[in-house]
Amino acid sequence: MSSPVLTVMTAAVRKAARSLQRDYGELANLQVSQKAPGDYVTAADQRVDKFLREELAKVRPGYAFLTEETGVVPGTDPEHRFIIDPIDGTMNFMHSVPFFAITIALERKGELVAAITYNPITDEMYSAEKGGGAFLNNKRMRVAQRRDIHDTLVSYEMPHRGGKDLPLSRAELSVLQGRVVGIRGTGSAALSLAYVAAGRFDAMVCRNINQWDIAAGILLVKEAGGFTSDPDGDKNPMDTGNILATNADLLPQFKDALSKARET
Ligand code: LIP
Prior knowledge:
Distance between the termini: 49 Å
Largest sheet: 8 strands, mixed
Bound molecules: L-MYO-inositol-1-phosphate
CATH superfamily of the largest domain: Fructose-1,6-Bisphosphatase, subunit A, domain 1
Order of helices and strands: HEEHEEEHEEEEEEHEHEHEHEH
CATH topology of the largest domain: Fructose-1,6-Bisphosphatase, Chain A, domain 1
Strand order of the largest sheet: 4-3-5-6-7-8-9-10
CATH architecture of the largest domain: 2-Layer Sandwich
Helix content: 25-40%
């Protein structure tokens, strides 16, 4: 049974997805602008961002927002904040690659308590609540149980051209290629984390990422029995913007591999 707030979040995401599905079918007509090199925003991002804020504010007035397209929107309720990315994987969306998601997390007193990540093209709804487990379309999710890094399939998000930490990313890819079975760059950190929660990817690594890209995914992974950490230590990825997500057995093995990359 979902809590009332998760039900509200799910309903808002489903409604917002309808406009995205329409836009996806008519991409040639979509307005696109560039925020920074490699960082695009479409009219669809802005429309979904506005729609979700309005829809959620109707039922949870006073909650604050942090969203990709609007930034910080203070609320009158000091305890609650929605964290939203209207389209995580905008580049995929613009290129007609059906790997993007609407992703929303709810924080209560600074702690992640509810999460939704939804791929409107595959109709896959990933959801979690603190202490209530994680689900993919109502089916319980568990992280993969592989124990040896040499057997793993990993999602590694590479920086865009001109992005930060290019030499480090190349070193990490090189070290990981020597240890894991396969590496995928998906273009959506939110969906990659959902895939870790679903047991599809064994691990996910990403640097220089924003809170709205990973907030929901952190709770999904945790509620599916996995762990998230800063790859370089024990700090909270929400604070550092660097994230490693995997299971308990693989966590030290991936940390070791990534530390070798830092030494090169
Ligand atoms: C994107 C991420 C992607 C990452 C990009 C970007 P957007 O989010 O999810 O995985 O590599 O740097 O931040 O901009 O599509 O919401």
